[in-house]
Specification:
single chain, ph1033 like fold, 2 domains, 35% helix, globular
Length: 339
C-alpha cells in the first residue's frame, strides 16, 4: 500500500537542497554515522542511547527513536513524500527510491540534514490553493509546530492523512513507472571494481591524495600484501582546532566485493595505534556486526569503519580535489556523476 509522508524540510528552508540533490533528509547531527546499517528498533535505541548519554528520560529517548524509526523503516520505497517550499503557496512531491538510507558526512551541498533517503522528485509542485481546506489545514498545522527544544532533529516526519486527495491532485492513482538511470548501488560497484583493478602503486597514490584532500598532514604510507588482498597503511595528523591535533592511523583494504571484515581484523589494526590516537579502517568490502562492536570497545582506541559504499561516496565527494592525471587514470566521471 502506497503511503504519503511529509517531511518539514526546515519549514522549506532546505527544499532546494532536497530537490537538487535528489533526496530527503533529517538532521540528528550528533549521530555522525550511517543509519542505513541499522536493521531494527533495538539497534536504533542502543545507538541513540550511546549518542545521548545525558538523556535519562526513557520517554524522551523513545521520542528520539520513534522519529528516526519513521524515517528509516516506516517510509517505504515507492511511497510518496511531500515537502514545503520557501514559497508557502506550493508543495513539492516525489517517489522514495529503492536505494537504502545513507549518510553524507560532509554537508558540502550546504544542507546540514545529512541522514538521507534518495527520492525521484516530480518536475512540478502542487499549489496549496488547489487542495481542500481540510488538507491545507492539516498540513499547515503540522508544519507550523516548532521543533521541541530538546529534539535534535531539524525535521518532523509525519504521515499525510488525506492520501486519496493527494493522489487525485497529481492524477496518479498508482505510482508512475520509474526511469532506469544508473543507480547509486550500480555506481558504487563500478567505482569499487575499478579500485580492485588498480596496480598497487596507483592505489597508493589514490590513498595518499584522498587523505590529503581530507585534511591529513605529514602523512606517511606503508604497504603490506597478503594472498588475495592489498592493504595500505597510512599515518597522519588531523588538525581539530588550533592547536589541537589528533594522530590517525588509517588502513585501506582492498577486499572482494560482498566480503565482510570481522572483529579480528579491526583488533589487529588497533595494535598499531599509539595511545591517544584514532584509527580508520577503510575497505572496498563491508563489515560484520562484530567488527562494528570491536571498533567501539571501551578502554581502547576508537576505530571508525568505512565500508565500500561509503568509500565510493568519499571518492565522489573529493573527486575534484584529486590530481588531474589520477582522475584521467581512473576514468570514473560517468559513474560518479550518474550515481
Amino acid at each position: 500500500m502506497t503511503n504519503v509522508w511529509c517531511v518539514r524540510a526546515g519549514g522549506g528552508m532546505f527544499a532546494e537542497n532536497f530537490l537538487k540533490g535528489g533526496y530527503v533528509g533529517i538532521g540528528w547531527r550528533e549521530i555522525a554515522e550511517d543509519l542505513g546499517k541499522v536493521s531494527n528498533r533495538e539497534q536504533l535505541f542502543t545507538l541513540v542511547r550511546r549518542y545521548f548519554p545525558d538523556v535519562q528520560s526513557a520517554i524522551l529517548l523513545s521520542n528520539y527513536v520513534n522519529e528516526i524509526h519513521r524515517f528509516l523503516f516506516e517510509i517505504q520505497s515507492d511511497d510518496y513524500v511531500i515537502i514545503p517550499t520557501a514559497d508557502a503557496a506550493f508543495l513539492r512531491y516525489g517517489l522514495v527510491d529503492q536505494a537504502p538510507p545513507y549518510y553524507d558526512p560532509t554537508g558540502e551541498d550546504g544542507c546540514p540534514l545529512r541522514h538521507r533517503r534518495p527520492v525521484t522528485w516530480a518536475a512540478e509542485g502542487i499549489r496549496l490553493e488547489d487542495l481542500s481546506p481540510s488538507f491545507r489545514n492539516s498540513i499547515r498545522t503540522l508544519l507550523n509546530v516548532p521543533a521541541h527544544t530538546r529534539m535534535h532533529s531539524l525535521l518532523t516526519v509525519f504521515l499525510v492523512e488525506h492520501k486519496e486527495e493527494f493522489l487525485r491532485a497529481i492524477e496518479r492513482p498508482e505510482p508512475p513507472a520509474r526511469p532506469q538511470p544508473v543507480t547509486r548501488t550500480v555506481a558504487h560497484r563500478v567505482v569499487l571494481e575499478e579500485l580492485l583493478q588498480l596496480p598497487l602503486p596507483v592505489f597508493e597514490q589514490l590513498v595518499a591524495h584522498l587523505l590529503e584532500a581530507l585534511g591529513f598532514e605529514d602523512c606517511q604510507l606503508s604497504e603490506h600484501q597478503a594472498p588475495g588482498q592489498d592493504v595500505v597503511d597510512a599515518c597522519g595528523e588531523i588538525r581539530l582546532a588550533l592547536p589541537a591535533r589528533i594522530r590517525v592511523h588509517a588502513r585501506f583494504h582492498r577486499g572482494n566485493l560482498g566480503a565482510r571484515i570481522g572483529a579480528e581484523a579491526v583488533r589487529q589494526l588497533r595494535q598499531l595505534i599509539p595511545f591517544g590516537g584514532h584509527g580508520v579502517y577503510v575497505t572496498t568490502a563491508d563489515f560484520e556486526p562484530a567488527a562494528a562492536a570491536a571498533a567501539m570497545e571501551e578502554g581502547f582506541a576508537r576505530i571508525s569503519l568505512v565500508s565500500g559504499d561509503q568509500l565510493a561516496d568519499l571518492i565522489a565527494q573529493q573527486w575534484t580535489h584529486l590530481p588531474v592525471e589520477l582522475r584521467d587514470r581512473l576514468s570514473l566521471e560517468q559513474a560518479l556523476v550518474k550515481g
